[in-house]
């Protein structure tokens, strides 16, 4: 089954997977699932000088059938207080939607998500109440985000 | 079992697809609907469905509420399904649970079935000759 599945896996996905394992991006781990090589367990370290610093955030990533013509699907599995990430861990990020290009890769997607943790964008919110909090009282919202990091991401 | 090219959509992404479809109201012709019961559950386990009783049956004009529970084995295994609204129907036990032995979609589950499939098929079952004229309990919940 394993080798059979490997044989059907597009070469591009095999290459990307190998490179993710051999040269991981700093603070990012992505490991394909043994039973489904299009399905990755991901861990992103909260970036330094962000309210997520010190946290380890678990995500899941799936390469749909038409990848790389279609974007990967990614979701946070760790609860996070962030204006662009909703209660179900869904992420509002342009390259996962209309700005996707086949020139991008799993690695670029994960780096962009890491960057989104450093630079929350409350003007393009997914979690409305979190974004409102961020705009009205950023210091307090940042404290809340830090508390969530301590509670859920350690 | 799996789709073309053997690409298997993992449980959580499959449920996110179903959620999006349910939210957009693309679920069939509006005769059924569904959504998450607990919008903060990252595991997306508890769902609520509704079925609009089919015309020309004893169910006409009624709105039935159901609970669907997708455990970690969904969609390899079917969800547990029970009616929340009281109903008298051949495949529904006295406590509202839909009995897989008497409801083929659950009894002979396939991975490409969805919660929408279940609701639409239950609605068809309501209109089947052995169900359409069954006397019904007073309206209420289990």
From TrEMBL, chain A:
InterPro entries: UBC, UBQ-conjugating_AS, UBQ-conjugating_enzyme/RWD
Keyword Transferase: yes
Domain of life: Eukaryota
One of the record's GO molecular function terms: transferase activity
Sequence intervals crossing the membrane: none
CDD domains xrefs: UBCc_UBE2N (cd23813)
Coiled coil: none
Domain UBC core: 8-154
Residue numbers annotated as active site: 92 (glycyl thioester intermediate)
UniProt keyword Transferase present: yes
Keywords from the named record: ATP-binding, Nucleotide-binding, Transferase, Ubl conjugation pathway
Family: Belongs to the ubiquitin-conjugating enzyme family.
Protein name as it appears in the record: UBC core domain-containing protein
UniProtKB/TrEMBL annotation, chain B:
Keyword Transcription regulation found: no
Keyword Transmembrane applies: no
InterPro entries for this protein: UBC, UBQ-conjugating_enzyme/RWD
Signal sequence, start to end: none
Domain UBC core: 10-142
SMART domains: UBCc
Keywords tagged on the record: Ubl conjugation pathway
Stored PANTHER family: UBIQUITIN-CONJUGATING ENZYME E2
Record-given protein name: UBC core domain-containing protein
Originating organism: Apatococcus lobatus
């Amino acid at each position: 089954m394993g080798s059979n599945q490997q044989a059907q896996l597009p070469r591009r996905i095999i290459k990307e997977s190998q490179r993710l394992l051999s040269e991981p991006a700093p603070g990012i781990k992505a490991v394909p699932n043994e039973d489904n090589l299009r399905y990755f367990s991901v861990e992103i370290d909260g970036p330094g000088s962000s309210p997520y610093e010190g946290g380890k955030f678990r995500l899941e990533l799936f390469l749909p059938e038409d990848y790389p013509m279609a974007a990967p699907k990614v979701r946070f599995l760790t609860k996070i207080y962030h204006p662009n990430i909703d209660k179900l861990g869904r992420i509002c990020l342009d390259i996962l939607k209309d700005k996707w290009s086949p020139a991008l890769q799993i690695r670029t997607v994960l780096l962009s998500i890491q960057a989104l943790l450093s630079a929350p964008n409350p003007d393009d919110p997914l979690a409305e109440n979190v974004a409102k909090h961020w705009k009205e009282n950023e210091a307090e919202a940042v404290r809340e985000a830090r508390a969530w990091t301590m509670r859920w991401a350690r | 079992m799996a789709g073309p090219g053997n690409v298997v959509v993992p449980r959580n992404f499959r449920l996110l697809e179903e959620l999006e479809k349910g939210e957009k109201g693309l679920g069939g012709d509006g005769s059924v609907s569904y959504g998450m019961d607990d919008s903060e559950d990252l595991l997306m386990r508890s769902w609520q469905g509704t079925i609009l009783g089919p015309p020309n049956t004893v169910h006409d004009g009624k709105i039935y509420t159901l609970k669907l529970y997708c455990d970690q084995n969904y969609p390899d295994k079917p969800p547990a399904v029970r009616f929340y609204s009281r109903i008298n129907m051949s495949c529904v036990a006295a406590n509202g649970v839909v009995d897989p032995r008497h409801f083929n979609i659950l009894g002979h589950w396939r991975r490409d079935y969805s919660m929408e499939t279940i609701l639409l098929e239950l609605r068809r079952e309501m209109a089947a000759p052995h169900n359409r004229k069954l006397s019904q309990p007073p309206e209420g919940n289990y």
